[in-house]
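Hi again,

Forgot to attach this to my earlier email, sorry! This is the prediction with zinc ion bound. I've pasted everything inline since the attachment limit keeps bouncing my files.
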Amino acid sequence: MPAQRDNVISVIPFAGFEKELDYRIPDRFTGDVRIGSLVRIPIRNRQSLGVVAALEGDSGLPPSRLKQITQLIHDEPVLTEELVALARWMRDYYAAPVESIMETMIPGPVRRGMKPKVENYLSVARKVSSGDLEDLRKKAPKQAELYTFLAQQFKPQKKSLVLSRTGVAAASCRALVTRGWVKEEARRLDREAYRDDLGGGETVSVLPPELNEEQEAAASAMLDSLRTKAFRVHLLQGVTGSGKTEVYIKVLREALNDGGGAIFLVPEVALAPQTVGRLRARLEKESGVRTVVWHSHLSEGERFDAWNAVVTGEARLVVGARSAVFAPVPDLRMIVVDEEHEPAYKQEEVPRYHGRDVAVYRAWLNRALCVLGSATPSLESLRNVSEGKYVANRLLKRVDDRRLPMIHVVDMCREILSKRGAFGLSRPLVDKMIDRFEKKEQTILFINRRGYSSSVLCPDCGHVLECEHCSVSLTYHRSDETVKCHLCGHQRPAPKKCPSCRSVKIRWKGFGTQRVEDAVRKVLPKASIERMDTDAMSKRNRFREILRDFRLGKIDVLVGTQMIAKGLDFPNVTLVGLVDADLSLHVPDFRAHERTFQLLVQVSGRSGRGDRAGEVVVQTFTPHAGTIQYARREDFDGFIEEEMESRRSFQYPPFRHLIHHLFHGPNPEKLEFYTERWVRHLEEKLPEAMEIRGPCPAPLEKVKDRYRYQVWYFTHNVTRLVPKLQALRREFPWPDDVVQVLDVDAVNLT
Ligand code: ADP
Ligand code: ZN
Ligand code: ZN
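Structure tokens for the complex follow:
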């Protein structure tokens, strides 16, 4: 290995460089620099930090021409080898700036050179005979001295103190550890600092239920995979309330009891307090395994603490949103991706990765088990099952044979004609709500926010109020009588009359959460009503308070967006209403039907989780639409068969990968000109690698006064195409005011 002998390494710099750079290791660091080590490097007359990516260079420059690293920041690497491999893969697959990946993987304080708050402790690993000790005293007196010192102590001693007291060098200490006589362990100092209180307010029963036959079968198939210590992916498809979480827990427990680590991903931690609480109660309290909760609300310091706890192996279970997939869990055995179909797993800023797909790739690197779970798996995962790449496990029954709720589809055209409803709520829904209120049972009303739900539309002339800077409609906010743009923040007083026809009815159109809340107040004046939407979400405590009050029965009707549809389990909810089922059907996205179906199933899963059967009312203007009927019959397979066929005929994902290339700039003609030129350039240079569609204006044509154009690329092989695209993109003469976004496996197509 000539490169090794020459002490050349490849470093990922944190200084706005896209490429790895080669450096030489000075002799004093030889042997200590490893893959994942944080080092200080000279770049263009400055000093910067970087992470070692490989112990050999690839620049081909003779070592004498290379600069030397100037410092090794920590003794321990800040990334494991597989995380470095994962970072390189993400860079190539997602065309992501490697610096953004480092920022996601390594907490800020560590990237700036702060040492992990870890203290290493030394203790005697085994008793040795006095003969052996004498032998060592002759060969290596310092080692023998250190061993003797430690053998006299009652408990593990701080390494730094021991070394300074005995005057023994770190190298001698390392040799003793290698010899197996002394044990070195990392320990945290302030044990309670990273305690997170999320989920703490939820009381959870700790008693494990006896798994039913279906659950047992799924769990034992996963346990088999776990025990092989080979890479496997299982797709656990179970109707809502079928007990998927219990299956995860059973398998997790074995992974943890065996000394391994695990990661559990949820789409959004704040929305999964019950799941977090349950995992903690069951795995932390029972098995004594520390859990770290990893989420986007953590401050930099808290994230650093969480990271420390994981790096040192003190916490072996990490529960969190998508970025938790990068937690440096040692000996990772299992990753769970709950609600794997959720679009929230896709990060909509650089690095634009998909948390589920990264989880699968990381499991492959670690030869670990990956479990994807959902009541309505994505078409991507289902296709991997039919291709034989994933193992499918299904749970068809709700636990204790609780019945699935009865779903009523209400035709809103008829309702409006008959004038029996009230303020956007149909008569059947209103009657059932009154009935529940009288029986002291609870109702949840969902608003479908994927559509343009709270737009201000004039019922007389059809005029829609739009933002002047963005091509979206403005949303009406009742609390301060304003209309706002959710893209650019533009805000002005709500007009009293339609600007087009002067009609005074304009303010009353749209089904925003506030509007539905008002309608419910009119129908049930004595009921206690609460609203949960993005406004409530921004105040985390408020959100938790509402959930607690709802659980305690202090709230009769909860109104919210589908954000709250996930994972909530309230036994006293026997009625769920979906106010505007079709809105998500009419968005310009080939996944519109999949999303609507998933929404309908998730939403109805919230009803009837206790002993009483639940009911669901779905209000729609298109009651006969296939998607709605499949959902009504809970016919998942029927829906998937039809949807898969339609995707196949267009060769949309999951049959090919979709790369979404977005361009924006102040001048639409210029954008059109350059994007057309770019596409012609691509057709010339990459004739067969892909299918190109576009350029054309994006569905959102304008945001913050910038016009948007898009090009779609369809390909079977992302890893082959993306590097070529990147290379061409770099050499293309783009004008300065055109900004591009390349989104691989795009989820948001607006
Ligand atoms: P899912 O994740 O599939 O929606 P959960 O795992 O949340 O379902 O289970 C729903 C409810 O049923 C939970 O309250 C859970 O404690 C309970 N449960 C799960 N499995 C069993 C079982 N085998 N016996 C009794 N109750 C169970
Ligand atoms: Zn009008
Ligand atoms: Zn705007």
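The first helix runs from residue 2 to 5. The pocket of zinc ion (ligand 3) is lined by residues 467, 469-470, 485, 487-488, 490 (CB under 6 Å).

That should be everything now.

G.
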